[in-house]
Specification:
Elements (H helix, E strand, L loop, with lengths): L15 E4 L6 E2 L2 E2 L3 H8 L4 E6 L6 H10 L9 E3 H10 L7 E5 L2 H9 L3 E3 L8 E4 L7 H11 L5 E3 L5 E4 L2 E4 L1 H12 L4 E2 L5 H11 L4 E5 L2 H10 L3 E5 L6 H5 L9 E3 L12 E6 L2 E6 L2 E6 L2 E6 L3 H15 L7 E2 L1 H4 L6
Parallel strand pairs: 1-4, 1-13, 4-5, 6-7, 6-8, 8-9, 9-12, 13-14, 14-15, 19-20
Antiparallel strand pairs: 2-3, 10-11, 16-17, 17-18, 18-19
Helix pairs in contact: 3-4, 3-7, 5-6
Length: about 350
């Protein structure tokens, strides 16, 4: 790199910043440290959108929550899994069909906005079932879905999130509820939210994005989905997935950037320098150096914990092997990156 030229940041040349919400912008009702000021700064130079699998609230309710945190947000800035699910549903049933809804206001609102009729009972002979998370969803709602689905009608689910971060910790997500119905009916739904493409297609179309950056806290939804959609991805270590999950991430779930918090969107991203000599793969990031020979991964120099994570992930991911098949240095296995 020419002398005096700064390395690009994760936001360099982006035309849209697509942010997950839970674990990225907020946890429960409160904002994650540094999130609001970082997003406000980003909005000065790039279109900011919010892309969420949360199906329990309307886009306006989400926008209102974000405004309460101090952000300038309109409902149209929020792309939800119910919006994507309804788009998928429209290809499976006739316009105006009666749809059995399992979920909250956010899902009901989108189904009605698309011109469908909502029912909560299998006895109303629905043309399809659409399912999304809401805290009140219980056995009776899942049973109605099961009764209806045994007739063979289409089934669309907003997302497969196994867990969600809430103020008190990690709680079961929509994936657990979908799994209960799956076990009862013996088949799976069509999924619309992250990590599937429909929700990213909705976002790209709405924001006119050609070179977007997707930021999330989950490898199996945000990062996998962004990668599938051909978008650049950044994992922020403020939510579900941390260093351990990054190192163990399978192919398809490797982020382009690993960040401790959203402030690093504006910082030059360190170069990942890789070389192979005499069967030894060496990766350097900043002052951190990690080497791998055959199935053995060792830290040659620790440096900054975040750079060590970046280097370790690069070595392991480049090998094409899963972490359980490797002898990994304890410094990497025990790595804790503070945000």
């Amino acid at each position: 790199m020419p002398l005096g030229k700064r390395r690009p940041t994760p936001l360099t040349e982006r035309d849209a910043l697509l942010l997950d919400l839970d674990g990225v912008v907020y946890t429960g009702p409160g904002a994650i440290p540094h999130a609001v000021e970082s997003i406000t700064r980003a909005a000065e130079g790039v279109r900011v959108g919010y892309i969420t699998n949360n199906a329990s609230r309307t886009d306006e309710a989400v926008a209102e929550h974000l405004r309460e945190l101090g952000l300038s947000v309109a409902a149209n800035d929020v792309v939800t899994s119910p919006q994507a699910a309804v788009r998928v549903l429209a290809d499976l049933v006739e316009p105006g069909s009666r749809i059995l809804v399992v979920g909250g206001d956010g899902l009901v609102s989108e189904v009605e906005n698309a011109g469908f009729t909502v029912t909560r009972s299998a006895e109303d002979d629905p043309a399809a079932v659409i399912q999304g998370f809401a805290p009140h969803v219980g056995w009776e709602h899942l049973a109605e879905a099961s009764f209806a689905l045994h007739t063979g009608i289409p089934w669309v689910a907003t997302n497969t999130d196994w867990t969600i971060p809430v103020a008190r910790g990690i709680a079961p997500g929509n994936g657990t509820l979908v799994s209960a119905v799956h076990l009862a009916v013996g088949r799976l739904p069509v999924f619309a939210g992250k990590p599937e493409k429909p929700i990213f297609d909705v976002a790209a179309e709405r924001f006119g994005a050609r070179n977007a950056l997707v930021v999330g806290d989950r490898l199996d939804t945000d990062i996998l989905g962004g990668n599938r959609a051909g978008m650049a991805t950044a994992l922020v270590l403020t939510g579900i997935d941390r260093a351990k999950q990054v190192l163990a991430a399978p192919a398809g779930q490797h982020p382009d950037y690993i960040l401790t918090d959203l402030r690093q969107l504006f910082e030059p991203y360190p170069e990942v320098r890789e070389s192979v000599e005499d069967g030894v793969r060496t990766v350097e990031v900043g002052k951190a150096v990690v080497r791998m020979k055959q199935h053995v991964v060792r830290v040659a120099r620790a440096g900054d914990p975040l750079d060590l994570l970046r280097a370790g992930a690069a070595v392991i991911h480049a090998s094409g092997l899963q972490i359980f098949a490797l002898d990994v240095d304890e410094q990497l296995r025990d790595l804790a990156v503070r945000s």
